[in-house]
Amino acid sequence: MDKAVVGVVNVLESYRGRDRLMRTLCYSCQLLGGVITEKHGDQHRYGKSFLLIASQLSHSRTVLRLFDDLSMLAYSLKYGLGKKEEDCLIRWISVIGNIFDQLYYPCEHVAWAADVGVIHTKSDIWWTASTVLWGLSLLVGIIRNGLPKSQGEIRFQMRSELLCIFSSICDLTNTIHWMPPGFLWGGCSPMWLVGLMGTISSLIGIYQTAVGGSAAGV
């Protein structure tokens, strides 16, 4: 029991660990709130409460991401042009993915600043731009994980790669929902489905972290 508590504390004391937990709670509350309001109506007390918690957690994560640019830049510079990658295709796909990830943050920052009145501009276009960049990054991740690997990599990493692909597909489903209406199913997914997709993706991310893998998500 002591080890379990220490493990949880260590996770909560790290930025990434706390963010993963906040993400999971955010989407779980959205799932519960969506299910309750779908069944009992928008004015149901508990449904509204869960959705309010989800909204506040999402806003908190957006504010915390104001400080992610430098860490992303450090990662991008460290990876560079991926000269250590043996496969040229994987190298350039990864570089393109890093570019999308790097551009995502300033677009989201501008959108947030516009929403809170720090700058005077329409936030919609910037939220759309950040959503598009996130979607492109997810597509790049799906393609990269889906490329053929050596027999050794297939043997030891197939489950991890499949989980990463499934997680990215869940996030991509939500990304399209957050696109402007008229683009595929933009704005059409029910609240509970958005929560479900995000919860699945978040739980996969937590599992990947626990076993030493990786799964990114916003």
Short summary of the structure?
With 218 residues, the protein is mainly alpha-helical. The chain contains eight helices and no strands.
The total beta strand count reads 0
Class from helix and strand fractions: mainly alpha
| Gross morphology | globular
Radius of gyration from CA coordinates: 18 Å
Give me the strand/helix succession: HHHHHHHH
Largest sheet: number of strands, sense, barrel closure: none
- The end-to-end distance, rounded to whole angstroms, is 31 Å
Number of helices: 8
Helix content estimate: over 70%
Give the overall pLDDT as a whole number: 89
Strand content: under 5%
Unreliable stretches, pLDDT < 50, 5 or more residues? none
Entry keywords:
single chain, 218 residues, mainly alpha, PEX11C_met, peroxisome, PEX11, transmembrane helix, transmembrane
